[in-house]
Structure formats: C-alpha cells, structure tokens
C-alpha cells in the first residue's frame, strides 16, 4: 500500500492551502458575524478551475479524482467551514447526480455551468416530514401531456439561492413506495418555484441554507433525471459520495481547531510555564492529533474506493460518522484548552465549535450512519 499523495494531489493541497490562507481565512470571522455569502471566493476558485474539479473535462471539469475533491473540502474547512460545506454540496450534491445519472444532453446543459462556476450546485431532497426517513417524500410530480407538474416543499437545502437549477426528488407513483420516487432537474427561475433564505442557524453562518416551495412547477419530460422510479436509489448513491465530503469537512475543521489549540498552548503561560508542559493539556492535544489522522485515513480510503469503482457505502459511513464525532470532540476540547478565551469570538474556536455540530446531523445523522453500517455488516 502507498499512503503518499500523488504529485497532482500534493499540488492541489498546496494550491488550496495557500488560497485558503490568503483569500478565505481573513474574512471568515466577519462573514460569520454578518452571514455574507462568500461569492467572491468561489468566483476565484472558478478561475482556478476548482469548481468542476472531479467532473469530466468535456463538461468543463478537471477530471481529478475524489481524493482531490476531499483535499479541497478539507483545506477550505480548516479555516472556514461555511466555505467547506458550500464547496462540498456544490460538487457532491449538485454536480454528482448529474454526472452519475444525467444524459449527455443534460450534462452539457446543466453540469457544464456547475463546472464553470456559472451556477452553484444544489440538491432538493430533505423535507419537513422526510429527514432521516428520506423515503417519506411528500413532494409530488404528476404527468400532464409532455410536462411534469411538481408540487411540494423542501427544507435545509444548501446553495439554492445561488443555483440556476437543481435536482429535486418527488413521488411519481405513491402505490410503489420508495420505488415510486423520481428525480427531476428543475430551473430555479421556473414559474411557481420559490427559494426562501431566512433560517437563523447555530453555525455555518455564511453558507446558504434555504427552503424551497414548488407550486405547480412545470418541467418537460426531458428534465427527468435518470429513470422514473429510480430517484430513491439515485439519492442514496448521491449521499454515499456526499458523506466523503462531510467527512473531509470534519477532518479540516478538526485540524484547524487542533492547530489553534496547539499554538495557544505553547504561548499561554500559567504557573510560570507554557500550558503545553502540563500533561492534562498534552493528552488533549495528543488525542486530537491521533483522531484527526485516523479520520483522514478513513476519508481518503472511502474516496480511493470510489475512484477504483468499488463499493464504498460502508466506508463512507465509517468516515462520515467517525470524522464528524471526533471533530465535535476536538472543537469541544479546543474551547477547553483556550479556557475563558475559548468562549470569546476573538479566538475563533467558538466558531469552529458551533460549525462542527452540523456534521453529526447533515447528510445522514450519526444514528443513520450506524444504521447503514449495521446493515452493511449483515445485521
């Protein structure tokens, strides 16, 4: 086994590390305070060719691998988790369903603007009564001549305010249960389509989280994504890839919290010496370093399996579950190491702590990950 990154992967890591330090980190606290969306950052990433990184060159992508995608998410999240989740959702939830299930014509029309950064990627899955139970979708699509008429609502949808189109799941045949759910590509400027951006969140303040309302939204038959009735299977496959993104985000966020804690522990003096000399602090930092490295290896393994065309469902759930939970612990310990200062916005770790909680919830809660793993191991 070779655990070294390729030259291309190392180059991407250095590029995004330098970019994050220069362009993303300086305004992260202010964006957290105001909730301003980091549009300029992603315009610059588009210029660097990063917005379509893992997708085919013929649609404007970079033809890179999933590990490279994970590296970008990790490096962005190390300084600004809001930027990390925006990019992760753009690729894994917005672009990937089109890449996996779209026709050539659909990819040319809808994947290309995602790759060029002209449109952000988004995915309309979660509903008020269909969260962990995604099969409980209430949104409907009814055929009317040559068009589908879609009615329903979606909640907690990332990036939709900046997406020109997105995939939406809807029930096309209630009698077939989960086999009666289909996916559609819906332009966000379609009559009857409303994007509402008024959530007040605990963290990830500068990411775009929206509610979607669809009232008699009409799309042509050509806007069906994949095969009718295959929507449930499609979004399960999409979420498997998305969990690699969330895992990478957790690794980056934990890494950022760890680095700030290590630096602070070396500089902060109590009882006549740096607190990094005290075993109580050393053990916290040692556990953080160990868990981050384990989580990173789990994320990269899941990404590698995906790139090899092998089954990676279980490994993606392992990575997402472990990485998100050690990230929450790392951010908790980062606040503790900083003491009273950790509770203050000036030292940033409180932002990391607030941002981290979503990772145990989004794209399948920790409980759902354990359900997935249990099924995969034969329970």
Report the CATH C-level class of the largest domain.
Mainly Alpha
Order of helices and strands: HHHHHHEEEEEEEEHEEHHHH
CATH H level of the largest domain: which superfamily? Butyryl-CoA Dehydrogenase, subunit A, domain 3
Oligomer: single chain
| Helix vs. strand class | alpha+beta
The structural domain count equals: 3
Residue share in helices? Answer: 40-55%
CATH topology of the largest domain: Butyryl-CoA Dehydrogenase, subunit A, domain 3
- Can you count the beta strands? 10
Low-pLDDT residue spans: none
Cross-sheet strand order for the largest sheet? 1-4-5-8
Beta-strand portion reads 5-15%
Q: Judging by the overall fold, what is the CATH architecture of the largest domain? A: Up-down Bundle
Tally of alpha and pi helices: 11
Termini Cα gap: 30 Å
Mean pLDDT: 97
The main β sheet shows up as: 4 strands, mixed
Keywords:
alpha+beta, Butyryl-CoA Dehydrogenase, subunit A, domain 2, Butyryl-CoA Dehydrogenase, subunit A, domain 3, 4-stranded mixed sheet, 4-stranded antiparallel sheet, 51% helix
Describe the structure.
By secondary structure, this protein is of the alpha+beta class. The protein folds into 3 domains: 7-116, Acyl-CoA dehydrogenase/oxidase, N-terminal domain (Butyryl-Coa Dehydrogenase, subunit A, domain 1); 123-229, Butyryl-CoA Dehydrogenase, subunit A, domain 2 (Beta Barrel); 232-376, Butyryl-CoA Dehydrogenase, subunit A, domain 3. The protein contains 11 helices and 10 strands. The chain has helices at residues 7-24, 28-34, 39-47, 66-79, 81-101, 104-116, 231-267, 279-307, 313-338, 349-356, 366-376, and strands at residues 123-124, 140-144, 147-158, 165-171, 181-187, 193-196, 209-220, 224-225, 269-270, 273-274. The strands form 3 sheets. Strands 1-4-5-8 form a 4-stranded mixed sheet. It has a 4-stranded antiparallel sheet with strand order 2-3-7-6, covered by helices on one side. Strand 2 and strand 3 (147-158) form a beta hairpin. Helix 7 packs antiparallel against helix 10. The protein starts with 6 loop residues before the first helix and ends with a helix. The model has no long low-confidence stretch (mean pLDDT 97).
